[in-house]
Amino acid sequence: MPILSETHDAVTTLTIDRPHRRNALDLTTLEELHSAVVAAVDGGARALVLTGAEGHFCAGADLTELEDVSFTVRLAEVLQHLAAVPITTIAAISGSCMGLGMQLAVACDLRVVGERARFAVPVAKLGLMVDQWTLDRVARFWGEGAARHMVLTAAVLDGDDAWRLGFAQRRGDLDAALDLARSAVPLAPLSQAGSKIGMNSSPAPDEAYSAVFSRAWASSDLAEGQRAFGERRTPRFEGR
Q1: Longest dimension (CA), the chain
Q2: 158 strand-pairing partners
Q3: Is residue 58 within 8 Å of residue 98, measured between CB atoms?
Q4: Is 196 exposed, middle or buried (0-12, 13-18, 19+ CB in 10 A)?
Q5: CA-to-CA distance for 167 and 141, rounded, in angstroms?
Q6: How does 50-89 read in b/e, with b if 16+ C-beta sit within 10 Å?
Q7: What is the chain's Cα-based Rg?
């Protein structure tokens, strides 16, 4: 099972367990993660910690299986559900937190970051795009300057950057994340759930962004980016 679930004292820990892919997610694992989140909330968990096995949080989408935009449509649904659950969610991040990993991290309420963590939104290396919801969350939690740095130049930021820029609420490992989760358990559930609704409010979708998103996912550049990834070479983009 690529998603491991364990609950103690009303805190559920979900571990992405695909170390052979640095915990990158394919569609099957994404669906299992969603089911595990639903089960945790339905089972009465008061806080949830999301982490990855063997030193990495999540290296992104499993590009060996990424076919088209349909994966991103389902991913958006899963991410928005995770962001909206009425309990406190915490990402315990070590190692790679790239692409889809970053999307999982910004879907959580809080982040605990290890010193070896690395962060990126490398869409421009592959010729694809993330949805506007993701861009909004990355800009909110990192600050717009850092968000533009990662998205437009494929920059990789580290744990010190995450702490300095406010993306991380604590430094440390899974134990630190569990300690933070336990601090949320005895607090008022309706207050927490209501506050999340207020803080999760985001701008309405932009039609212009939707148009360029669709264009990118139908482009020759995306096909070239996927080929180059598989062939381990630098892509040759032509803007079409």
Answers
A1: 55
A2: 118
A3: yes
A4: middle
A5: 5
A6: bbbeeebbbbbbbbeebeeeebbeebbebbeebbebebbb
A7: 17
Q: Count CB neighbours of 162 within 10 A.
A: 27
Confidence label for 148 from pLDDT (cuts 50, 70 and 90) = very high
| Strand 118-120 to 3-8 pairing | unpaired
- Asked whether the beta carbons of 69 and 214 are under 8 A apart, the reply is yes
Confidence class of residue 78 from pLDDT cuts 50, 70 and 90? very high
Angle subtended at Cα 202 by Cα 201 and Cα 205, rounded to the nearest 5 degrees: 140
Residues sharing a CB contact under 8 Å with residue 68, sequence separation 6 or more, in sequence order: 217
The reported pTM is 0.90
Taking the CB of residue 179, how many other CB atoms lie within 10 A of it? 14
User: Measured in Å, how far apart are the chain's first and last C-alpha atoms?
Assistant: 40
Instruction: Give the position of tokens 């010190």.
Output: 160
Question: Reading across the β-sheet that carries 157-158, which strands appear in turn?
Answer: 96-98, 118-120, 157-158
Out of 63-77, 83-97, 121-135, pick the least confident.
Answer: 63-77
- Amino acid identity for residue 173 in this structure: D
With beta carbons less than 8 A apart as the criterion, state whether 58 and 75 touch.
no
Give the E-state strand segments of 105-216 in sequence order.
110-113, 118-120, 157-158, 170-171
| Backbone angle region of 97, left / alpha / beta, with phi > 0 → left and psi within -120 to 50 → alpha | beta
Q: Whole-angstrom Cα distance, residue 79 to residue 202?
A: 14
